[in-house]
Prior knowledge:
This protein is mainly beta and 171 residues long. Helices cover 9% and strands 48% of the residues. It has one helix at 27-42; strands at 46-51, 61-67, 74-84, 89-98, 105-115, 120-128, 134-143, 148-155, 160-169.
Amino acid sequence: DDPVVASQTDSSSTEPSRRYTIVENSQQLTLFLEQLRTQREFCLDVIAIRVAARVVVDAPIHVLFVTTPGADRVMAPARLVVTAGERSQLTLVESYAGISGTGRGFTNAVTDVVLGESAVVDHYKLQREAADGYHVAAMFVDCARSATFASQSIVAGGAIVRNDVFARLGG
């Protein structure tokens, strides 16, 4: 009866293969996992990047999300799925920017990174949203045997900013 954030998928799917369960069955953790499930369901548009096995991407891949609340309140669900095949290498820059208005922006971001065996991903997150905006993010990293994932985060804006990272080390 452990909550599942996402279930196993087949290898032909662009969705990450992941199963998280509760280690300590507290009400607070159960609620948190339910919120993550809801967060993923809100993301209607998904940016999916797939790097094939044994491919080395020389230039960084930059994904930019921009929130423009104008005079209204805006919720911006952002979903990024990155799959790095076996022995592949890439650098990913994930950026969030916001333009101030009289409204307030709320970014609700989910990033999934799946690394095949011996894959290498260097990840940089830049969060530069409006000073009165909110940014809540969850990153799920699934590393196969001998994979390497390194992440750096720079936050320069936002009234409330939260970044949670969940990693599963395989092999």
